[in-house]
């Protein structure tokens, strides 16, 4: 079941079109989701509650390394995709390897684009595209004290 929620880009586009035709509002967010923690769970659950279906754009291993450095990701893309797909409030997961999710956002055409409140709407990739199509862009308050980088540092200090 969880693997069936991991879609190619083409499958994700078709699925979004089908959900939209059924009257569903499509929410899109993206990220690395390297070591899953409470902050991720809280964020994704709140993102899903903004619409009817949540599509998650997941950075490939190569793109995570470009963003976070050569020692990341800790968890490979297949395992990260399966973990994200296992969450009841994530309806589909699709990988992207581009430097930003803009191409994926333009292909999926979400009704609602979501990022954490560590971003402002002005600097969210794809915000202009979604707003121009009549959609909305929301930010979600992050759970204080949770970040993968901080978690990795605590693990390093413990061992």
In terms of topology, how is this protein built?
Elements: H1 9-21, E1 26-31, H2 38-48, E2 53-59, H3 61-68, H4 77-85, E3 92-96, H5 102-108, E4 112-116, H6 127-132, E5 136-140, H7 148-158
Parallel strand pairs: 1-2, 1-4, 2-3, 4-5
Residues in helix, %: 40-55%
The Rg value, from CA coordinates, equals: 15 Å
**CA-to-CA gap between the ends?**
36 Å
Given the C-alpha coordinates, what overall shape results? globular
Question: What is the string of SSEs from the N terminus onward?
Answer: HEHEHHEHEHEH
Q: What is the spatial order of strands in the main beta sheet?
A: 3-2-1-4-5
The helix tally amounts to 7
Quote the beta fraction.
15-25%
User: pLDDT under 50 segments (min length 5)?
Assistant: none
Largest sheet: 5 strands, parallel
Total beta-strand segments = 5
Question: How would you concisely characterize the structure shown here?
Answer:
This protein is α/β, with parallel strands linked by helices and 159 residues long. It is built from seven helices and five strands, in the order αβαβααβαβαβα. It has a five-stranded parallel β-sheet, sandwiched between helices.
């Amino acid at each position: 079941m969880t693997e069936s929620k991991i879609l190619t880009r083409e499958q994700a586009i078709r699925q979004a079109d089908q959900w939209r035709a059924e009257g569903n509002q499509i929410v899109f967010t993206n990220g690395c989701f390297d070591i899953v923690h409470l902050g991720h769970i809280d964020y994704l659950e709140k993102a899903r509650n903004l619409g009817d279906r949540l599509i998650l754009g997941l950075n490939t291993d190569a793109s995570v390394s470009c963003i976070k450095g050569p020692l990341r990701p800790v968890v490979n893309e297949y395992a990260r995709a399966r973990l994200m797909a296992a969450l009841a409030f994530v309806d589909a997961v699709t990988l992207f390897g581009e430097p930003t999710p803009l191409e994926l956002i333009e292909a999926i055409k979400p009704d609602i684009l979501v990022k954490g409140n560590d971003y402002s709407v002005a600097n969210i990739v794809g915000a202009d595209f979604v707003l121009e199509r009549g959609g909305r862009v929301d930010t979600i308050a992050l759970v204080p004290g949770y970040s993968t980088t901080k978690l990795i540092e605590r693990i390093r200090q413990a061992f």
